Amino acid sequence: METIMNNGKQPIFVRSIRQKDNYTFTIQWTDNKIVDYRLSELQKRCPCAKCVDENSGMRKNASVDNNVKAVKISNVGRYALRILYTSGCSTGIYDFDMLHKMGFE
Amino acid sequence: MPLKLFSEEKSSGAKHVIAIAAGKGGVGKSSVTVNLARALSRLGLTVGVMDTDIYGPSIRKMLPEDQLPQQKGNILIPAVSDGIKMISMAYFRKEHEAAAIRAPIANGIITQFIKSVEWGPLDFLLIDFPPGTGDVQLTLSQQANLSGAIMVTTPQEVAVMDVRKAMNLFEQVKVPFLGIIENMSYFQAPNSQERHYLFGKGGGERLARDYGVPFLGSIPIDPKICQCGDSGQSLFADGDMSPGAADFLKVANNVVSHAAAMKKASQDVLKEFELVWKQL
């Protein structure tokens, strides 16, 4: 039996997640796509209220340290990741669809 | 070539963690949860029930405890009723006392239920969701490591409409559907074979077809279900099986087979993990 969602698309989940180097981690998705994610690139897209202005949608953090690292990365339910950065930012939820799509950019 | 693997999966104690939800009140989620738990238990499975309705917990009445819950340090040992483990806000308040608490506190209680209850090994943990699609439902979806959701509806379109909204929430958080149970499907008078579809016919099956998810079964309006719920007795206690009891056993068998299939289908999915960063 397959997991079926209303939009008819097969949902994307994490098959494995590994630290690649001090600044990058790698996800293998359930469609077998393997994508490297540099933490500084992800923090530039952090959707948390500290990083994005709630009303204007503009980013508050103009500069992100290119060598930012993680303390830990954990799942949020079955649909997203939460990253605790060494910069202190920790409340952004990165949903799997957004992360998976990043692999095509 | 990938470097060292740091990911690890945390174990949750239950083989299947199932949300019982509807998005609305009045369709009989709690009654379905209790009777499904009893039916699964009758099939020889170990079952736990988490009542997450902080404002109107009703399961304790339907599943009266043989043993009260206990606190040991930071750990909560669940109550036990007829071999079914159970936790509910009802143990921490007087029966007629209103829980006048704001959402962050309710959320904190739910987080405690998720993190601090020592269930021991279970085949099924059934989580009776409160009505709505708000804070508590999101917290459960994010933290309870749900394997799937069972949606409960009554047949009429007005009820089905609200259930669709709750299904949309589960879609957003990628919790797969185990299936649909239609409650209060029909009434069959004693000594009669004729079924009366008081709330219309086939709403649950249509919903299941629309979403492409299994239809787990129909539960009739059976006075015995109501009597047993009010008195805290098991629907399956006497040998003479009522129509409601027979249908709950069918539903329980469907739940067991679909849950096994769902687990098999998600074998290579990393469901719970924490990647702790190392200096390489």
Commentary on this structure:
The complex is a heterodimer of chains A (105) and B (280). Chain A is mostly beta strands. Chain A has a single domain (14-102), classed as NE0471 N-terminal domain-like. In chain A, 12% of the residues lie in helices and 31% in strands. In chain A, β5 and β6 form a beta hairpin. Chain B has one domain (20-265): 3-Layer(aba) Sandwich (Rossmann fold), CATH 3.40.50.300. Chain B has helices spanning 29-42, 59-62, 103-116, 135-143, 157-172, 203-211, 223-231, 243-265; strands spanning 14-21, 47-51, 70-72, 75-77, 79-81, 84-88, 122-128, 148-153, 177-182, 187-188, 195-196, 215-218, 274-276. Chain B has an eight-stranded mixed beta sheet, sandwiched between helices. Chain B has a two-stranded antiparallel sheet with strand order 3-4. In chain B, a hairpin with a 6-residue loop joins β10 and β11. In chain B, α1 (29-42) packs across α8 and α3 runs parallel beside α4. The longest helix of chain B has 23 residues, at 243-265. The relative contact order of chain B is 0.19. The model of chain B is unreliable at 1-11 (pLDDT under 50). Chains A and B meet through β1 and β4 of A and α4, α5, α8 and β13 of B. β4 (70-76) of chain A pairs antiparallel with β13 of chain B, so a sheet runs across the interface.
